[in-house]
Amino acid sequence: MKKILQITLGIVTSVGGFLEIGSVTTAAQAGAAFGYQLLWAILLGTLCLIFLVEMSGRLSAVSKHTIVEAMRERFGFPFFFIVLVGMVLVAFLVLIAELGGIGFSLQLLTGIGFPWWAVPVSLLVWLLMWKGTFGLIENGASLLGLVTISFVVAAIRLHPDWSGVAAGLLPAMPQSDKAHYGFIAVSIMGASISPYLMYFYSSGAIEDKWDETYVGVNRFIAGFGMTFGGFLSMAVLVAAALALQPRGIQVDDFHQSALLMTTALPRWGFYLFAISMLFACFGAALEVSLAIAYFFAQGFGWNWGEDLEPSKDARFSFVYTIIILLAAVPLLFGIDPVKVTIMSMALTAATLPLAIIPFLFLLNDPIYMGKHRNGWLSNSVVAIIIVVSFVLAVISIPLQIIGG
Amino acid sequence: MRLERLLVLPVLFCLACKPPTPAERMDSMLSWLATARMTGEAWLRQTTPDTYSRQTLELSGEKIGQVATDLLKSPPSGVDAAALDALFTRSRVRVETMARLIAAKNAPDFGRQLDSLGADEKLVKRLVDSIEHKQ
Predict the structure, then answer these.
(1) Rounded to an integer, what distance in angstroms lies between the CA atom of residue A403 and that of residue A30?
(2) Given CB atoms, is B123 within the 8 Å cutoff of chain A?
(3) Residue B97's domain is classified under what CATH number?
(4) For residue B6, is it within any domain?
(5) B4 part of a folded domain
(6) Which residues of chain A have pLDDT under 70?
(7) Domain for residue B9, yes or no?
(8) Which among B16, B30, B49 is the nearest to A111, CB-wise?
(9) For residue B12, is pLDDT > 50?
């Protein structure tokens, strides 16, 4: 009974915590510019994410190591350091974007410009990290994030052409604007396969004291949670395709994305969008800050744990304090969160191989995995994901220049 | 890698950074006009708050001005630049007026401006279609 409850809660929190500024922005841009044509990118990204998250949880449950700890131990400090630099830089940009997303949501609700929110929002995120527990961050923020289901309601109320939706699940090149199409596809993949999510999930498994008996629970949560989460991203794309594309509105600014649900849900659409973005970005900001602190602490062998008193893991707490403080600075100067989001998603795609290659070795290592090593299916999928990630890494920067 | 080869990279990047084409700028213009109209319609239906609607219209006016400046530096071929300038200036002024009318809570005048903006948007849409057709 306890396991069923954990599976349910895990799936619910995965759904509530799935959307964040990157997935919403890229999906809205895709729908507004290309209709249903880029649904396949969300599908592909979600499938990759399901496998990677499942492996992250399995590694932690079986080996009692997080990905970062195992990577440092198995590949040594030089390799860990390269991954650290790449991942932390990208995650830092994502954090700026998430804090900007919270600020912008508050601007929508109050009319006060988002730079004014940079300090109070960062303080609130920091305070929750300082005082809160892992359970509060994992479950509390994600449960609030369930309001993002309103995107599904909006998409359905706009009466999509389901055959067109199904056709969009298969990759096809557009007649024109191929570079922009490719750039958005890469950004969607970058937003879907966010490495910080894997580090967070893997560390969460240790925080929640998972053991080998949780391998099945992990599989259910990763499979169902990420699948339903992927549906939310698809709903954003479909809503944008129906509400914005026919009018020729491109999503270059948050003010435009705020119109996403006003057609489908005239009375509440605007407020639901603002509240959805507020909770989604708030949950993601907490997760990214924690993921960065986990990365440092686990890699350098410091004490870590969100459930520990800050005095017991001072260096871990210091890292997230500094990171949140630094992330607030560009927002104070009014940096455009949409531009940061798009740049960070493309850079995420560029650094994906660094994050994913270790999976192939760690998940096949009998010392860590015992009888729970990857089977042929998981290895084939990781191999495909590595190939995809290399392709994304190679094309992401040129596409950002040409089509971004 | 030799230093000269390293120096080639930024040059290649700069070459790849092509500015938007006139057709892309026209799409951007249409996008901001449509944003202004959708925002206006939502405000008239009282489904968006005054502050958001005003801020979005102000932003749209600003963007229309920016895109128009860029477009008029290299207008699409076969299009009368003076007529284009007049159309964009009229649209920008309309959008800015709509933002002020929200502050004054003057819905009837706002509705009239919105209708006229719709007509301007149709003109721009026709231009965009003809440019795409030529391509």
Answers:
(1) 13
(2) no
(3) 1.20.120
(4) no
(5) no
(6) 1, 9, 13, 16-17, 397, 400-404
(7) no
(8) B49
(9) no
Given a contact cutoff of 8 angstroms between Cβ atoms, the answer to whether A83 and A334 are in contact is no
> A115: domain CATH number?
1.20.1740.10
Q: For residues A101 and A298, what is the distance between their CA atoms, to the nearest angstrom?
A: 28
Is B53 domain-assigned? yes
The predicted structure's pLDDT at residue A175:
81
Query: Looking at the predicted structure, is the pLDDT value of residue B14 above 50?
Result: no
> What is the count of residue pairs from A and B with beta carbons less than 8 Å apart?
62
pLDDT of residue A16: 64
The answer to whether the CB of A296 falls within 8 A of the CB of A117 is: no
| pLDDT of A388 | 85
Q: Do B35 and A269 touch (CB under 8 A)?
A: no
Look up the domain containing A255 and give its range.
2-403
- Residue B80 falls in which region: left (phi positive, over 0), alpha (psi -120 to 50) or beta: beta
Over residues A129-146, the pLDDT tens digits come to: 999 998 888 888 778 888
Which of A218, A192, A201, A202 is closest to A72 using CA atoms? A202
Give the pLDDT of residue A90: 92
Q: Which residues of A253-287 are buried (b: 16+ CB within 10 A; e: fewer)?
A: bbbbbbbbbbbbbeebbbbbbbbbbbbbbbbbbbb
Q: How many domains does chain A divide into?
A: 1
Residue B6 has a pLDDT of 46
Say yes or no for a CB contact (<8 Å) between A111 and B125.
Answer: no
**Tens digits of residue pLDDT in B58-68:** 999 999 999 99
Q: For residue A356, what is the enclosing H or E element? A: helix A337-362
- Please judge whether B31 and A250 are an interchain contact, meaning their C-beta atoms are less than 8 angstroms apart: yes
Return the structure tokens found at B92.
């920008």
Total number of domains constituting chain B: 1
Whether A108 and chain B come into contact, CB under 8 Å, resolves to yes
Residue B58: give the domain boundaries: 20-134
Q: Two tokens at A240?
A: 């944008």
Q: A247: nearest CA in chain B?
A: B34
Cβ–Cβ below 8 Å for A248 and B31: yes
